[in-house]
């Protein structure tokens, strides 16, 4: 059932190294951003979110950076582990809420042992 | 365990056949959405429902239908009018703070 994730850009990192996954968002009015992890054949899992009044937010082993000037979002994963191998994608919306979530196409992260 | 449950995980459709994908949530959320996921593309919105007994077409509603008779349930029917139904289908629901949560997905294949 693995067809989702084909033809995506791939980032290969050595186990233990840090990973940086990037996302360019499209709507200047978006003020709420989410990163998801999607493993093969599964639904997306929430990783971390950030609002536009912040430029950095940290979680457990993950950090999200937001650059509103260039409409760019990044996800940093520290000490990447084999279990981090998945497709990662970003989503944008508004804090006030709208039905319209915009999703990135995703990046496949491969962790090399 | 609170969450969004989709079934079946795998479904095969014959030409000319309608099939229904189930989505149930016990999160007490008002809104529920259906997305389609194809290789190399972002999620595309099929239908959404902001509240029980109401639903709206998304960006790619043609060939699909939904109902929202209960708050917990938002089934998606893929009709024979959908000419390219093979895809991974995701049911989702936004919660407090506007974070959107997803089910585990259903694979639909035309045979």
How would you describe the overall organization of this protein?
The complex is a heterodimer of chains A (113) and B (111). Chain A is built from no helices and ten strands. In chain A, the strands form two sheets. In chain A, strands 1, 3, 4, 8, 9 and 10 form a six-stranded mixed beta sheet that branches. A four-stranded antiparallel beta sheet of chain A has the order 2-7-6-5, with no helix packed on it. The model of chain A is unreliable at 1-5 (pLDDT under 50). Chain A has strands at residues 10-14, 19-24, 32-38, 45-51, 56-58, 62-67, 72-77, 86-93, 102-103, 107-112. In chain A, strand 5 (56-58) and strand 6 form a beta hairpin. Helices cover 0% and strands 50% of the residues of chain B. In chain B, a hairpin with a 2-residue loop joins strand 5 (44-51) and strand 6. The mean pLDDT of chain B is 94. Classes of the chains: A mainly beta (113), B mainly beta (111). At the A-B interface, strand 3, strand 4, strand 8 and strand 9 of A face strand 5, strand 9 and strand 10 of B.
């Amino acid at each position: 059932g693995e067809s989702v994730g084909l033809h995506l850009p791939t980032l290969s990192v050595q186990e233990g190294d840090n990973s940086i996954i990037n996302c360019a968002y499209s709507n200047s009015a978006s003020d709420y951003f989410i990163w998801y992890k999607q493993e093969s054949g599964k639904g997306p899992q929430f990783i971390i979110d950030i609002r536009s009044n912040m430029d950095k937010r940290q979680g457990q082993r993950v950090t999200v950076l937001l650059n509103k000037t260039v409409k760019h979002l990044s996800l940093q994963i520290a000490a990447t582990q084999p279990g981090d191998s998945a497709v990662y994608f970003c989503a944008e919306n508004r804090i006030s809420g709208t039905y319209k979530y915009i999703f990135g196409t995703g990046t496949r992260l491969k962790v090399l042992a | 365990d609170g969450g969004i449950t989709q079934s079946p995980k795998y479904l095969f459709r014959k030409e000319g056949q309608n099939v229904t994908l189930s989505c149930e949530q016990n999160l007490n959320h008002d809104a529920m959405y259906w997305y389609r996921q194809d290789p190399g593309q972002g999620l595309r919105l099929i239908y959404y429902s902001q509240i029980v007994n109401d639903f709206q077409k998304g960006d790619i509603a043609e060939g699909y239908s939904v109902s929202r008779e209960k708050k917990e349930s938002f089934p998606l029917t893929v009709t024979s009018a959908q000419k390219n139904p093979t895809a991974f289908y995701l049911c989702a629901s936004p919660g407090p703070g506007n974070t959107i949560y997803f089910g585990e997905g259903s694979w639909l294949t035309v045979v």
